[in-house]
Amino acid sequence: MSEDNKVTDAQSGLLNRLLNKVEVIGNKLPDPAVMFAGLLVIIWFLSLIFSQFTYSEIDPRTGVEITVNNLLAPTAMANFLATMVNTFMYFAPLGVVLVAMLGIGVAERSGFINVGIKLLLNTTPKALLTPMLILVAIVSHTAVDAGYVLVIPLGGVIFYAAGRHPLAGIAAAFAGVSGGFSANFVPSAIDPLLQGITQTAAQMHNPEVMLNPLNNWGFTAASTLLVVAVGWYLTDKVIEPRLKATEIDGDTDAMPQIEEVSPKDRKAFYSASFTMLLGVIILIAVTVPEGSALRDPETAAIASFNAPLMQSIVPLIFLLFWVPGIVHGYVSGNFKESRDVITAMTKSMEGMAYYMVMAFFCALFIKAFGDSNLGILLSIKGANILQALALPGGVTLVGIIFLVAFINLFVGSASAKWMLIAPIFVPMLMQLGISPDLTQAAYRVGDSSSNIITPLLPYFPLVVVYCQRYVKGTGIGTLVSLMLPYSVALLVLWSAFLLIYWGIGLPLGLQSSYTYPA
Q: What parts of the sequence cross the membrane (predicted)?
């Protein structure tokens, strides 16, 4: 082992010990589904205890003093059982995510998304290799987990083929896929998933609140530039220079190679891309006319909650990936018959099985939390404390970002964390005049920034294996030491970016706002 490697190991020793403690603590946490089931039971007993007291806080929904409802009362338990099925069926995030995934799953399993990623990477000039790799990694979120299994290993392959250190390519791709998880100019399934949770939490404060699935699209699209710029600089100026003394001692003959895109796959991709472009043109053509059925029937506006176009965002995401995916599948030969399309959709739903189990318990927990009135009581009391502290709104948002980044070290699932804390933070900040759209944007910054330094991320061990193909001695500490600069830089600069974005007043997304009438 070289002297430089010894210094690096010594520097990462303290960090490794800290991460080992985090890993031990994190491994003791129950599965998110079990966690929500346990929280449901806790809410029941808390409702019994706090229902014995009276409170002076006024419920903004009714204008009367808040009363905590005892969920263990016989009538409440009977209602819980009678409405359990509907509570799950009408859980807002469930339907939108499953519908979006049906279309994206076909596009992914037909090869449409994978071929597109390979074409982008294969035609990139060497000088732009790093930013293009990070950009492709960010766009891969559209296919949910495709980036982890396709783009990250390809990052090592293309850097190695270009004469650069492969671990730098893996780090850059990992930073884009996971660190930039909430940056994307292409709508993906994560958008309606988080929006559904946010809307459910906001309705605990005001049942009339409706949010657009793309309520953060403007911010996430602009954030793409930030993540690419930060990742580009750190990879070329910080990470790769540190790796110069790190010997590549893996079996180079067994290393994965960049597969050439066959003429048949290329033809299929272009056919599918043309189909997608044609679909967008048709959508624009039928929306532009004043009398379009997709406009608000009363105001003729396009960006209106009552406009069918805005209510069709998720079905449109489904169609814009489903149809091109079918075209690519048949032209490439990956789909032979209609049954193959259905199989692809079935496989995508199989991948969502765990999410549906978690959503079942989460839906019951959120419903109980709302019915008990503990959520609104906590949010009002919390808002009163924050108002008494008189902290600027920006300070409050940054505090939430850093808190979420810390929680992310223990609970890796973006949806599980948001399901857990949204019912508290969203209504609380609504009390302070901060919109659910802005609160969700702050959450996304914190959630993304620390993804790449927690060994509890499900794909973290897989990335370690990718690194070991090139450097046999790579361990968790090695990968964390590579990713820590990205994490810290994203946490600080992305938080500042959100504050600047907010200060300028740029649109967060469709039908979104920064403020809420307190």
A: 33-51, 88-107, 119-140, 170-190, 214-234, 268-289, 309-331, 352-369, 389-411, 418-436, 448-467, 479-504
